[in-house]
Amino acid sequence: MKWNRGLVVILYATFAAATSVAGGRQISGKRSNPSAACFEAQQQLGEAVVDTLPLNQTVVELNWSQTCVQEPYCIISPTDAQHVSEAIKIIKSHNVKFATRSGGHSPNPGWSSIGKEGILIDMSKFNQVSLSGDGQVASIGPGLRWGQVTSVLEQQGAAVVGGRLPDVGVGGLILGGGYHHVSGQYGLAADNVHNFEIVLSDGSIKNANAQENEDLFWALKGGGPNFGIVTRYDLKTIPVGAIWCQLNIYAPGQALEVLDAFTEWQTNGASDLKSTIGLIMGLDTVTVGLLYFEPADQPEAFRPFYDLEPLQVAIPPTNATLSFLNEVLGGAFPFTPLRHDYRGISSRIDGNTTKEVYQHWVERALAVRESTGASQIFGIQHVPSELAKQGVAKGGNPLGIPEEDQLWWTTLVDWEDATQDDVVRSVSIETENYWLQLGEERGLRIPFLYMNDASRDQNPIATYGAENVNRLKQIAKKYDPTEFFQKLQYGGFLLSKA
Ligand SMILES: Cc1cc2nc3c(=O)[nH]c(=O)nc-3n(C[C@H](O)[C@H](O)[C@H](O)COP(=O)(O)OP(=O)(O)OC[C@H]3O[C@@H](n4cnc5c(N)ncnc54)[C@H](O)[C@@H]3O)c2cc1C
After folding, report:
1. Which residue segment(s) compose the domain that 266 sits in?
2. CB atoms near residue 395 (< 10 Å)
């Protein structure tokens, strides 16, 4: 037993005095007291749920990016919504900072991790998947990763709109929207939520869906971690059968030709919503995944690519499954204990601009690799107007994505040394600025910024449009009147900063 009950009173008083943290945005004048909160949580929820010092390092280190790994005062790993409710009440009563972590895939420091000043709520034990009797709704825990969800559902002949990579977590992805291969056909993952089970700041456990707490339902479809801790997502299933796919690897010297083919697909082929392309432009290779969501033979939509000779056909044309795609993509992004960042921007489609920005990026990324060893990728996600229309048709969301064809640029950056954070991150920051400059000059600018690609200094919620932001703030005020999630949540894309 980690707490000797005979010494508890003395330790409690000593720790409480030694570790009280004053100041910060707190919800009452009471001093923050993580040790008292951790003690009370362990007494109430048990040692299996609340881990105190010395912490289990495997759980501490679950964040994908080293930019996020921190030692909290204690870790609460609830197994059901009632535990989350108790945890919230205790955290609130001791005025302690906290962070919630599901898959831990955000690379933004402090979004899903916290240091000694607070408590980590680790949702990894919410790892159940179940399918309704009629197969129409899949209930999934936020602590799952998309690879697990995809494979369990596939064994039961079902699929959902979710994440494209197996290690990425369920919890954060849906609250940011959730862009999937099939989002052109079905909208974002959040648009396909039937019901959110959520614990509010007063500890109450609620459902948010089209009939119950409808305003909260709307807000959760992209509004981030501002309203409560989600303990279950009920997702509408979608029909997915065999998927035609081919994976080609090109040389960096072919990058501009690949971008020409990609733009041609965006302007012509992509109107066939069954077609989608994963484009990952690295510094040594350019990878193109052609995906067609139906069994097929050389779909016409990808015509611009058929004349482009790849260095290597990594996966010859084949009819595959979502799990297979997950595995292939997972292999391309292995879990490595490095520092990571991502960044995003949206733009109207213009091939010349994409190529100019790519050239700007590659020159800088190569130079920074030379001095730091940092590896970076340049990715373009095609967003057909139908994606936004699906969101509206399925009840609406707060994102304010314009109903026009567009692209969401993203970059993933990996490096080792914390002293090089600024120089490494400068490449993506400069690239974003260049997109913005060209976008303004050429009338290509789309203000919307996708939360799941946004870096720590970006402000996605502020781009949702004034009306949506005001509505989100009203809804937050209604469901979290004490501003618990704004004041005690350690990081995240918070409405109070939008
Ligand atoms: C390699 C890679 C691939 C990716 N692929 C995709 C993709 O295909 N599509 C896409 O849309 N995005 C993608 N993303 C982005 C990803 O969706 C976000 O990083 C997302 O935040 C990850 O969710 P998580 O649960 O792992 O995050 P976490 O780091 O655990 O959490 C992220 C944020 O959500 C909050 N949060 C987490 N769980 C809960 C909860 N249950 N209740 C309330 N708040 C919660 C956290 O507090 C934090 O603010 C990818 C990211 C990476 C690094």
Report:
1. 243-462
2. 14
| Residues 442 and 370 reside in one and the same domain | yes
Q: Is 168 in the pocket of ligand 1 (CB under 6 A)?
A: yes
Residue 381 near residue 178, CB atoms below 8 Å: no
Tell which one of 67, 100, 206, 485 to mutate to probe ligand 1, the residue whose CB is within 8 A of the most ligand atoms: 100
Q: Which two tokens stand for residue 204?
A: 């109450």
Q: Taking 70 as the threshold, does the pLDDT of residue 252 lie above it?
A: yes
For ligand 1, say whether the CB of 101 is within 6 Å of any of its atoms.
yes
**Ligand 1 test: best mutation among 65, 69, 70, 175, most atoms within 8 Å of CB?**
175
ipTM value: 0.99
Whether residue 231 is found in the same domain as residue 292: no
Question: Do the beta carbons of residue 101 and residue 374 sit within 8 Å?
Answer: no
Asked if residue 118 and residue 232 are part of one domain, the reply reads: no
| Residues 335 and 61 sit within 8 Å (Cβ to Cβ) | no
Q: Whose CA is nearest to atom 38 of ligand 1?
A: 171
- Co-location of 335 and 300 in the same domain: yes
Place of tokens 């919504």: 81
Instruction: Please give the Cα distance from 185 to 112 (Å, whole number).
Output: 31
Q: Number of folded domains in the chain?
A: 3
CATH code of residue 140: 3.30.465.10
pLDDT digits (tens, 9 = 90+) for 453-491: 999 999 999 999 999 999 999 999 999 999 999 999 999
User: From the CB of 179, is ligand 1 less than 6 Å away?
Assistant: yes
- Same structural domain for residues 329 and 257? yes
CATH number at residue 13: 3.30.43.10
Ligand 1 lined by 223 (C-beta under 6 Å): no
